[in-house]
Amino acid sequence: MKTSKRLNKNSRIRVFGFGWWFYILLAAVLLVVLTILCSSMDRASRKLVIFILSLSEYIILRIYKYSLKNIRENYNFYNELPCYLCNQSTILCMIGALTESAFVMSYCVTAGFLGALLALLMPDQYNQNQLFFSRQAFGFYGYHSLLMVTCLSFYTLKIYEPVPSHALGVMAMIFLLACIAHLINYVLRKSGLHPQANYVYTYFPENIVFQKCYDLFPVKVLYMIPIMLGFGAVSYVMLVVMKLFG
Q1: pLDDT tens digits, residue range 143-157?
Q2: Model confidence, pTM
Q3: In this structure, what are the phi and psi dihedrals at residue 108, rounded to the nearest 5 degrees?
Q4: What's the Cα-to-Cα distance from 244 to each of 164, 168, 232, rounded to whole Å?
Q5: Whose CA is closest to 60, among 6, 137, 112, 115?
Q6: Which of 15, 127, 143, 184 has the fewest CB atoms within 10 Å, i.e. is most exposed?
Q7: pLDDT (mean) for 68-88
Q8: Which helix (H) or strand (E) holds 130?
Q9: By the 8 A CB rule, do 180 and 172 touch?
Q10: Which range of residues forms the domain containing residue 135?
Q11: Distance of CA 61 to the CA centre of its chain
Q12: Residue 5 included in any domain
């Protein structure tokens, strides 16, 4: 008997499954529609749209994080601070929309987008095989999908003009954010507020890619350097392609 692909209350989201593609395609459609609708707007209005998008996703994020205390038995408020890579990107999107900093916007359209995409490709243990019709699924998959749209909007709405050399700044930003996250982890651990704090995985890896790097160079934070270089290389390619297609 063939398994029905229709969504129902027991449907779960699996990477590359129907529910997963739903969010990917939803993000793509939203980006196209947003680009078309904003094409006739002036620059200030387009920046405002991006700011509203990033603010909306931050609100979704905080509601989602707050709701987790009713879902997870081991809920810890200090594990849900906006210090994860994607959370940092949301805040940077707001800063980029307000300041038009090329340094910040280049990070958003490359590392910010890539980080959100990787989160969807490698969801953490809590969001793997998640029920499609659940607050947690909407909070995780909906948030990261909207983040991808917001990050790319700097380019599609012609607020940011791609410059390949900005990839060096992207790597520097990634390293800076990792160091800030590590400092937060250190304080939370030493204070006892969150003994297992591991924002941005600076203390230990939590997925297979990070684990490979840690096995080769088991030093806190510094084991992530190959990943930062990889992000920088991909960011450079993205900026080159974006510049070519203008």
Answers
A1: 999 999 999 999 999
A2: 0.91
A3: -60, -50
A4: 11, 19, 18
A5: 137
A6: 15
A7: 88
A8: strand 130-131
A9: no
A10: 14-245
A11: 11
A12: no
pLDDT, tens digit (0-9, with 9 covering 90-100), for 25-73: 999 999 999 999 999 999 999 999 999 999 999 999 999 888 888 887 7
In a domain, 176, yes or no: yes
Residue 191 lies inside a defined structural domain of this protein: yes
> Pairing relation of β-strands 12-13 and 130-131?
antiparallel
Q: Is residue 2 part of a domain?
A: no
**Coil, strand, or helix at residue 181?**
helix
In the chain, the amino acid numbered 75 is: Y
The dihedral through the CA atoms of 195, 198, 204, 209 has a sign that is positive
Structure tokens at 108: 């958003």
Contact present, 149 and 27 (Cβ < 8 Å): yes
Tell me how far apart the alpha carbons of residues 64 and 137 are, in angstroms, rounded to a whole number.
10
CA dist 133 and 142 (Å) reads 12
Which helix (H) or strand (E) covers residue 216, if one does? helix 208-216
Helix spans in 39-72 (H): 43-67
Number of structural domains (the chain) is 1
Q: How far is CA 203 from CA 52, 84, 196, 232, 241, in A?
A: 34, 13, 9, 22, 34
Measured CA to CA, the distance from residue 236 to residue 169 in angstroms comes to 10
